[in-house]
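User: Predict Tripartite motif-containing protein 14-like's structure from this.
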Amino acid sequence: MAEEDFRPLSEEISSFCLVTETRSGTQVTQPFPCSPKLIRRTGANSPKPSELPVWLDDLKKERKRTESHQESIKKRQANLNTSSEAMKQQVQECFEELHMALQEDEKAVLDMIEQDRRETSSKLNRILQDWNQHLSLLQKHISAIQSAQQSPAESMKQLFPEDFTLTSCRKKLDPAEEEIKMNEERIHKLMKVLRNISKDLKAQLQRKSLLLDSFNVAIDKQTCHKQIKLTSEGRGLCLSSEDRCIPNEPLRFDQLYCALGSVAVTSGQHYWEVDVHCCPSWAVGVAYGSLQRRGRDKGAKLGRNRCSWSLEFQNGHLMAWHNDRHVALPVTAARAAPNRVGVFVKYQKGRLVFYDAETMRTLQEFSAVQTAVFERAHHQFTEPLYPAFRFFSPKDKGHHHMEICDLSF
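Assistant:
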């Protein structure tokens, strides 16, 4: 290399420096000159006299296009109000139908209770009249005895009939009287039904907002373990005890009974549901596409690494997993393991929520705010998210089947 190619660093810097003089006469050294693209060129875009008509014509066309576009936006703005009012009217009509149905049913139930009360009251009135007659007869006999005490003995026969005895004055209690009452057992059953309806209605009202973000999930058959068979056009998974003769592709899980969805979540908010009631043990969640597919170590297991989140039910225990940390969720008779799991993802917020889709009870929420037991930094999604599924040992008793629910309207 030539000797002149090596110059001192000071010379290199000075070649890029620009010396300017301020109004006070002090020299100021700027490290780098402005880019030629940033230097304003005076007169560079000035039209020639012969070009003025063309420029004027172009500017008029642009003005006309701008005015037309403004009118279009104004028209859309006016239509926005009209559309909004129409939507509100439709919503009000739907809720009015619900209100009317509830009011009609409420009236029918109250009428049923009132009818039961009237019938019961009528029966009790008849019994009360019978006892009133008996009471009048007793009072008559008591008055007769009091009169007889003050009268001669021969007048006794006139006051009492010949067959009169104290035994005949005693009225037997009818056990059937105790059975005359309102049908409280029926009312108690009705109250249980109404409470269940109320609970289901509240759950469905909460679910409706999630259904607006329903996500069409299908299984990517290239990711399925060899013993997982797809059914229902890629929406159902069934674990078999036999291997299928299929090529061992790089996307396929080779040791764990796992599968991923075919479409990734990369933005927005999405919701889907998985029916797991036909599976004795399962895991449902989401995972990055970079999740390990080979082997049985933590890098490939759902929830045991930074690339996946899962809700898992195994050996009667329900747990939420991420980054090899877990939270045990209570499973009792009152709070049983879900038959249907709802999964909600809000990608930009790094939010993931698992629901019991039948009761809309929140099972676990992963987010930077809600999950102190997990590392906050891991709840900002950095890669596309795929729906993820896992079966456990096929030796477990029961039918191993999961189905992605159809949430289309």
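The CA atoms of residues 49 and 406 lie 69 Å apart.
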